[in-house]
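Figure 2 data, in text form.
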Amino acid sequence: MNSLYKINENMLSLLSVIEANEGELTDEVLEQLEINNEELQTKSESYLAVIKNREALNTQIDDEVKRLQAMKKANNNLVLRLKNSLLNAVNIFGEFETGLVKFGIRKSTTVEVTGIVNDLPKEYKTVKVTEQPNKAEIKKSLQKGEQIEGCALITNYNLKIN
């Protein structure tokens, strides 16, 4: 069985032969066209089977990622509950040791902003600006014939499987 590349190459070669013969189809050319078409059908079905298999595998991978993320979240929640329980124990009993481990409290300070960020003075704000192209408007302008530096309409050909 030839590769899809070889099948395409054979088809182009046969089309060149037909063109050289001014459109005349000999029995040999007809037979080769039929063989090439059969190979194309078989190879395309094989490619489709691989595509479907890989898409199913990707779905399984996505499901497994979701399952693992849920497991990670449950583990993080458990760790947080256990740490809070130990913190409560230290608050009630004070610092204590168990074998090689010492439990205590370390004081830290964080900032919580409960108000509206825009109402804060400028020195207490960081402004982050991200600019993104408005592709819909760029497409409309390019389709009207306008020239926009650094932009172009690209035609893509996507496989459609029915």
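Caption note: Residues 35 and 41 are 10 Å apart (CA to CA).
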